[in-house]
Design a protein that fits this description.
Blueprint (H helix, E strand, L loop, with lengths): L1 H8 L2 H33 L10 E4 L5 E5 L5 E2 L9 H11 L11 H14 L9 H10 L6 H17 L2 H11 L6 E2 L1 H9 L8 H8 L14 H18 L4 H9 L17 H14 L4 H6 L3 E4 L3 H14 L7 E7 L6 E5 L24 H10 L7 E4 L25 E4 H7 L2 H11 L1 H10 L21 H12 L3 E2 L5 E5 L5 E4 L5 E2 L3 H12 L26 E6 L3 E8 L2 E8 L9 H18 L14 E7 L4 E2 L8 E6 L14 H15 L1 H5 L3
């Protein structure tokens, strides 16, 4: 009160002096504040440009197979050089003509907007530059408060200090909202016109440039008349700025534009179970956090072969009857690299997202026997080693009840059979006797070498696949045989980049020799025998129902339990595992249920490798081929009605000739010839 009394009584000169004094003080305070603001902005450095972006998955051939976005918001980042020049010029003409001249704030435009607002008595004209709008889109809400305006100014300063004009413009065009869930020019281009941002015409570019002012009001899909008026304003502004010729205005305005609304078209989901596997690998193996996956704009390059995946899905769809509730899983890999080429985790992802290829564990049955017979090869067995197959009761002792394994349909040779026959016929008696002879702990140890991580038990029935394993796990283990004894890890992701192409992760392929190369090849020959009818004359080999489908070298093994049906096998360039069963673990119903896995495997392998080079399994130097009588595993003579070329490690091949077909003289002559070849010293000291 006293101050105002003094002011009223002061002379005019005194009042002027006071006004100048206080004016200088206020101006000084503003100047100091502005300098302080500039220093603070400089000290804080560039603001982090945390822009939510859509993550994209790509198949091995470069095709897009899936997207992960933020609640239906499509966001893609493209560099400025990949954006059509008409979009850039149109945006600058209508949003910020002086963009490349000012330092974040257009003072002339701000002054003009203030005058317009004062005349109208309300806010009628905006004065935000592209940098200010970018700052608002990145960091702030759109509330019209002084606090928000101050924050916007501060972020604008930081952006202009830390980034070039082109970087700011690129960011703006990649984050501005164009309506219909499309953020950024690439998303808008794809949605409205089904094109990339670098492929737009002048008419399309100017139509898009007008949308951000009012994404609903200026949407050409919702309000085409409004959009056309806005487009006309932009075209005339560009002509005034000299970025287009005046003659182009009318032509572009009259162009008939076609709107495709791309993401509203029904797009088939590509390999949903494989995509689920990729997500699991991202989180569990590569430790990529969920926010980065959902909002990080990652580019994830995978191993999926779209053609093989299509064959897998169509094979399953066509082989299993529609009204069956039975489920299945399939995994196909390149055994040389570990690349997973196809994966199916169930019959319908929308009905059940449970990924049986990765999450389910089921008893593998006889598909576990190859690990037993590899163990046997390590301990002196060969393909010709005979053991009697007959109904057998094993007295376990130590308080354990007797163990009575059975063969399928209670079929027994009631005679000696070779290991090659035992595997081809899936003889359970031979397998259990071998497991007990070697000691069950050895089988557990061998399985671990092959990469089986599921919990196993050192029990007689482990030889018959009584302990549950996963489909991917078992398929990868068979790949060790196909890969000459080298183990590789399953690979789903080869590379990850950010939206600008910077490599964040790249898979390094490695392999480890875990079993002997020669024995791995011998096992492959034994597994090829499951399709060879020559190996037995009293019952069919387990692959007889599908061997007529196979047109190239293949090796594999089927397996079954009352609840599960399996087939796992390989060619030199592809290993595939198939499981079929019921989710509730009910028993398989009939011959159709038990036969699905083999038929799916055979049709898939042939379809997946169609038009691919036919490769043979490469024989190592330490392996020799001999002609045998497959019914007894002995060297064949001219009198043997059936012969087969079989493979053995050098030094383990049979030396005894078959004498079951009245050829004793011939046999003696050949034995004498072999003695002569041994030489004098070895004949004398043969012991």
């Amino acid at each position: 009160m006293k101050f105002w009394q003094i002011y009223k009584e002061a002379t005019k000169q005194q009042k002027i002096r006071w006004m100048k004094k206080w004016g200088l003080i206020v101006a000084g305070c503003f100047a100091l504040s502005f300098v302080g603001l500039l220093l603070l902005a400089k000290l804080m450095g560039p603001p982090a440009l945390l822009v939510p972006q859509t993550t994209i998955m790509y198949a091995a051939d470069g095709s897009k197979m899936g997207e992960i976005n933020n609640g239906g918001q499509n966001r893609y980042w493209v560099p400025l050089k990949k954006i059509d020049k008409h979009v850039i010029n149109a945006t600058i003409s209508i949003e910020d003509k002086s963009f490349y001249k000012h330092n974040g704030f257009d003072m002339k435009r701000i002054g003009g907007a203030l005058l317009a607002d004062l005349k109208a008595g309300a806010k009628v004209q905006g004065a935000s530059t592209i940098t200010q709008q970018y700052a608002r889109n990145l960091f702030l809400t759109h509330d019209k408060t002084w606090r928000r305006k101050f924050q916007e100014a501060f972020y604008t300063l930081r952006l202009e200090m830390s980034y070039s004009k082109d970087e700011i413009l690129e960011g703006y065009l990649n984050t501005i909202y164009y309506g219909h869930g499309s953020y950024g020019i690439q998303s808008a281009s794809r949605y409205y016109f089904g094109k990339n941002a670098e492929e737009l015409s002048l008419g399309e570019a100017t139509m898009l440039a007008g949308i951000p002012k009012g994404p609903s009001y200026y949407s050409p899909i919702l309000h085409e008349e409004n959009a056309k008026k806005r487009q006309s304003i932009i075209l005339n502004a560009m002509a005034e700025d000299g970025t287009i010729k005046k003659s182009a205005v009318q032509k572009a305005a009259s162009d008939q534009l076609t709107y495709v609304r791309e993401e509203e078209e029904e797009v088939a989901t590509v390999a949903p179970y494989f995509q689920d596997a990729v997500m699991r690998a991202l989180k569990k193996e590569l430790n990529v956090n969920t926010n980065s996956i959902q909002f990080g704009g990652l580019r994830i390059y995978t191993t999926l072969d779209p053609k093989m995946q299509e064959v897998a899905e169509h094979t399953i769809e066509n082989r299993i009857i529609d009204n069956s509730s039975i489920q299945t899983a399939l995994v196909a890999m390149d055994p040389r690299s570990g690349d997973v080429k196809a994966l199916v985790g169930g019959r319908d992802f929308e009905q059940s997202s449970f990924n049986r290829a990765l999450q389910a564990k089921r008893a593998p049955g006889s598909t576990f026997k190859p690990f037993l017979y590899y163990t046997a090869l390590e301990h002196g067995y060969t393909a010709s080693t005979p053991i009697k197959s007959e109904r057998t009761t094993f007295a376990m002792g130590d308080g354990v009840g007797d163990y009575k394994p059975k063969n399928f349909k209670n079929r027994y040779a009631n005679d000696f059979i070779t290991m090659a026959q035992a595997l081809a016929l899936s003889d359970n008696i031979y397998a259990v006797k071998t497991n007990l002879y070697l000691g069950p702990k050895k089988l557990v140890k061998t399985a671990k070498k092959f990469g089986i991580k599921s919990e196993l038990a050192s029990i007689p029935s482990l030889a018959l696949g009584s302990k549950a394993v996963g489909v991917l796990e078992l398929t990868n283990a068979y790949g060790v045989f196909a890969n000459g004894g080298k183990k590789v890890d399953p690979v789903f992701i080869t590379k990850i980049t950010d939206s600008k192409g910077k490599v964040l992760y790249e898979h390094k392929y490695e392999s480890k020799q875990v079993i002997d190369e020669n024995k791995a090849f011998v096992m492959t020959d034994l597994l090829a025998g499951t399709f060879d009818e020559k190996l037995n004359d009293y019952t069919s080999v387990t692959g007889s129902s599908i061997n007529h489908y196979l047109t190239r070298p293949m090796a594999g093994k089927s397996g079954s339990t009352p609840n599960d049906s399996w087939m796992v096998g390989y060619s030199p360039q592809l290993v595939t595992g198939v499981w079929v069963g019921y989710d509730n673990n009910e028993e398989l119903h009939d011959v159709n249920d038990t036969g699905y896995s083999k038929r799916i495997w055979a049709y898939f392998m042939e379809g997946a490798l169609k038009n691919k080079e036919i490769l043979s399994f490469e024989q190592p130097e330490g392996v020799t081929a001999v002609t045998i009588n497959p019914q007894n595993g002995k060297l064949a003579t001219d009198s043997c009605p059936i012969t087969r070329i079989s493979y053995y490690e050098k030094g383990t091949e049979p030396v005894e000739y078959c004498d079951e077909h009245g050829a004793s003289i011939e046999i003696k002559e050949k034995l004498e010839q072999k003695k002569e070849e041994k030489g004098f010293f070895n004949r004398i000291f043969s012991w």
